[in-house]
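Consortium newsletter contribution from the modelling node. Members have asked for a concrete example of what our holo predictions look like. Here is one, prepared for the protoporphyrin IX containing FE complex that several groups have been discussing at recent meetings.
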Amino acid sequence: APPPAEDELYQALGGQSGIERIVEGLLINIADDERIVSHFVDADIDRLFEKLVEQICMESGGPCEYTGDSMEDSHAGMDITEGDFNALVENLIVAMTAEGVPVTSQNRLLHRLAPMRGSIIYR
Ligand code: HEM
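And here is the predicted structure:
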C-alpha cells in the first residue's frame, strides 16, 4: 500500500529524531536478544540503521524515500522463521514504548510493517 498522505503517524513517532531513537533502541534490544542476535553478526549495522530509519519514516508518512534493497533481497538465505519475525517485532514494541509512543500509534506502524512478513520469512 502507498504510504499515508498525512504525517500524523510520523509525528506520533517523534519525527526524524524520534524514529532515529526508536531504531537505535531496536538495534540495542536485538543485540541483547539471544533468540535472534546470531542473524546480525555479519550485518552492516550502520547501513541497517540508516535503511530502517528511512523505511519507518516513509511508512509513517514522513518526508523520506527508502533507498535500501527489497525485503526479499535483504533477507535472502537467512531462513528467518515466524518466531524470529515475532521476536523482532517485540523488540520494536519495547523500543517504541521506551520512547513514549502511544499504543495506538505503535499498532499503526506494526500494521504497515506486517504485510512485509511474507517477503522476509523463509527466504
Ligand atoms: C518487520 C520486520 C522487518 C523489517 C521491516 C526489516 C527491514 C530491513 C531493512 C530495511 C534492511 C536493510 C536493507 C538494505 O540494507 O538495503 C534489513 C536488513 C536485514 N535484516 Fe531485516 N527487517 C525485518 C525483519 C528481520 C528479521 C526478523 C530478521 C532476523 C531475525 C532480520 C534480519 C536482517 C539482517 C541480518 C539484515 C542485514 C543484512 C546485511 O547487512 O547483510 N530482519 N531489514
